[in-house]
Amino acid sequence: xxxxxxxxxxxxxxxxxxxxxxxxxxxxxxxxxxxxxxxxxxxxxxxxxxxxxxxxxxxxxxxxxxxxxxxxxxxxxxxxxxxxxxxxxxxxxxxxxxxxxxxxxxxxxxxxxxxxxxxxxxxxxxxxxxxxxxxxxxxxxxxxxxxxxxxxxxxxxxxxxxxxxxxxxx
Length: 170
Known about the structure:
Structural class: mainly beta
């Protein structure tokens, strides 16, 4: 396990929803790392300016976002896709849900989108595009020299370079 790092991120909906959040993870975020949940020791997300009926803002906590996806591109950029739901409780049990993430511009971009629903799929509210997550402090996200992940990342880079050269040298 790596040292805990806190990240910040934002999101913008095509219909005006604004999002801001933070998450903390101690996972070693080597290039091309992917996780679909359970790596966050803390997570918070607030959505505001939500269009349509229902509350115009909502805050999700770590438990509600436990299944969020995270991906690191080859340059070490961290991409987050909040995934989960917030229940407002009795008496009506109204809820906001962030649907399953997608990467509509992959492979040219690892950027995620999620759809925001109010009380199920028929309550579509917005499609939110998420920013690259940035460390809240100046902590470096590079694997320690000599670590297994650093050696693996170096080996993968060398292998990829040689395959690229071999493919196009013909």
